[in-house]
Structure formats: C-alpha cells, structure tokens
Amino acid sequence: MNKNIMSFIGFDSEFEESQIVLFGAPYDGTVSFRPGTRFAPEVIRKDSYGLETYSPYHDDDLEEYSLFDSGDIEFPFGNRDKTLSMIEERTREIVSTGKIPFMVGGEHLVTYPAVKAVTEKYEDLVVIHFDAHADLREDYLGEKLSHATVIRRVWDMIGDKNIYQFGIRSGTREEFKWAEEHVYMRKFDLKGIEEAIEMIGDRPVYVTIDLDVLDPSIFAGTGTPEPGGVSYKELQEAIIKLKKLNIVGSDVVELSPQYDVSGVSTAVACKVIRELVLSILG
Q1: pLDDT at 5 exceeding the cut of 80
Q2: Nearest to residue 276, comparing CAs of 203, 183, 230, 211?
Q3: Percent of the chain, pLDDT > 70?
Q4: Apex CA 73: angle with CA 108 and CA 5, to 5°?
Q5: What is the pTM of this model?
Q6: How far apart are CA 219 and CA 213, in angstroms?
Q7: Crossing angle of helices 232-241/264-281, nearest 10°?
C-alpha cells in the first residue's frame, strides 16, 4: 500500500511498521434520506489538523504509535456489490498482515463487508454498535443490503447475543421486538457499557460508531438526524472505557459534512476518531 497524499493527523508512518491502518470508504449508494457521506473521509482528513495528536482524556499521543493512512478506496459509480467487495478486500489485506483496520465512512452499509473480512480471522467476534437507528430490518424497500439493514446482515454472520447496541432510539416496532431475542440493545443512552465490557471479556471486538448516535444539536452534519441523542461527553466517556477490550477492527460512519457548514460536525468526527484510535492502542 502507498501512503495517502493527505493523511489523518498522526497517521504518517509506513505500512510495514504500522499498528493501525486507516482507510476511507466514500460510499452513500443506499442512503434512504439525505446523501453526502461520500464526502466525509476527505473532509475529515483535512480538518483533523485542527486537532492536537495528544489527547488529555487518555494522556496519550498518536505520535507515540505507528499509524498508516492508506487513503480512500476508489469505487465504481453505481456498483454496490463491487464496492462492498472492494471494502472487504482492503480490510482482508490489512487483517492478514496482523494490523488493525480503521475505516472512515461513508454510510453505514460499509460496515458489513469490513466485519465480513474480520470474521474470517476472528470467528468468535463481538460487535459493539453505537447508533440512533437499530439497522435491524430484514430488508428496506425490498433490498437486503442497505444502511438500514446493516446490523441485521452482521447478525447473519455472527449470530445471537454477539451484538451490543447503544443509543438506539429509532426503528420499526418489528426491529425492537426482534432485538429482544437476538441482540443486546440499550435504548436511548449509553448506560450499561461497563456490564457489556465485563461480559465480552477478552473476545475480539469490532466497534462501529454511527455518529448520529449524538444529538443533532451537537452533530447536525448527518443524513438522518434523530433528536434525543447522547452528548459528546457521554460518547467520549464510553469510548475511553472501551480501552479494556481487545478491539481488532473499527469504523466511524455517517458524517455528511455539507449539512453543517460551521464545520463543527466534522470536528466532532475527527475527535471521535482520535479518541477511538487511542482506546484501541491504550
């Protein structure tokens, strides 16, 4: 892999020596409301330089680690299946070399092929999912592959009680009823994260953060804003607690930067990425 021309702040090591490999998945082909997440990875990289590499929350610094930014995958327009295959291939390449993939979306469907590649190495994988939306539909308008069905497709791969959802406040009645039998769902807030961490133990974990878990008063730049979300501080505290886990892959998705011209939403996305990277390595 070649180093991207502009990297996320602190991600300037070489691939061979890296611990985490970041890549962008600029795709929004199944977005059900407002598109625009395809623009997120590029804007996030640029705006990341408004941050310091040092996090006072962790008392840790990105510069203490070997981190590599492999750039965005260049997707064929209109070809969903090829796009998903390319994400799976990039993730598999990273995992096969013993490194941790960190994907920046893009809409939430991009999580599906990434998890698919990670499960090839880690058969007992657990997924922690922060989101406003359940994403547990069997299909959306007849399509089984959508950002509204992504966690249901993940469940198809890893099975019952291996998915922990937090912050969920939107979905169909059927999704919430189905969740009672098949996943651990915490509605409305992030309470219970400590108990989940204890239950998971040292099993391998994939963390997916849909940024619309945040209240739109904090994070307006998303395609499907859902009032009643958590604060940045609540999400920050939950991310720091994750450092106790064996995280083997992660993503941050669903920023649509053009819906927040102030740039605040992008700044939030950048900081979430920095803190999650340091939790993985900490």
Answers
A1: no
A2: 211
A3: 98
A4: 120
A5: 0.96
A6: 9
A7: 20
Tokens standing for 87? 């994400």
Q: How many residues would you count in the chain?
A: 282
Alpha-carbon span 39 to 247, nearest angstrom = 27
Q: Residue 138's closest CA among 98, 171, 103? A: 171
Classify burial at 177, counting beta carbons within 10 Å of its beta carbon; exposed 0-12, middle 13-18, buried 19 or more: exposed
Task: Give the tens place of pLDDT for each residue, 93-143.
Answer: 999 999 999 999 999 999 999 999 999 999 999 999 999 999 999 988 888
- Is 176 in contact with 188 (CB distance < 8 Å)? no
User: Between the CA of residue 38 and those of 115, 190, 253, 272, what are the distances in Å?
Assistant: 20, 28, 10, 18
pLDDT of residue 211: 98
Nearest Cα neighbor of 268 from 225, 237, 231 is 231
In the chain, what are the domains? 15-281 (3.40.800.10)
Is the separation of the CB atoms in 9 and 49 below 8 Å?
yes
Tokens of 167: 């912050």
